[in-house]
Amino acid sequence: MVDSEESSSYLKKLAVGNRQHVHLELRNVCVVSIELVVPPECDVRPISAEHGGPGFIRGTHTAWRHGNYVFVGDEVFGNESATALFAGRPTRAYGRLHVVDVSDISNPKQVAWYEPEFGGVHNIWVVGDTLYMGTYNAGFRAFDVSGELRGDLRAQEREMVHVNPVSPNGKVPNAAMTWGAVVKNGLVYVPDINNGLFIIRLDPKEKKVVP
Length: 211
Fold this sequence. Notes:
The chain is mostly beta strands. It has a single domain (47-201), classed as Lipocalin (Beta Barrel). Helices cover 4% and strands 44% of the residues. Strands 5-6-7-8-12 form a five-stranded mixed β-sheet. The protein has a four-stranded antiparallel β-sheet with strand order 1-2-3-4, with no helix packed on it. 36% of the residues are buried. Mean pLDDT is 76; it is low at 1-52.
């Protein structure tokens, strides 16, 4: 797929959705959505992902199809921050969650986004109208993704929950580096690189967000 030895691009993840589409993530390149209904006429279009520029390790890390939207997560680290992460020292991540409208699969459009004030975007999970996300040093977040999604999700106060999963006895004490979230039987399992596994139960939301 990538022939050049000098290229840092590679296949990061492949997911097959329940609506006859495949989402491919090409590290440092793009997200590609391929319609499988008529293979000879498959639509392949790149969706622009955020890049950190020179001195950064960056690329699309994850993509999750939910209804007419694909949630695309960027993973961005400065070179020094990545070195600190692998060495088990406190560090800082960056990144953005892109919301792409794929109601017309031949013409995907970014319509909304979320960017942590201090942190990045890693693995996500969507159940019902709630999106769960690990945001590295910004901890665990959950968002209301009901209705039409447009614009800045943080500015719209769609964030429902923020938990900072830290411990004074962690590998890096009191410093979150939250990897993601997995939802099962009403519980959210939140793994943190520095502090271990946290299990969270969310109360039902009190009101529905209407953009």
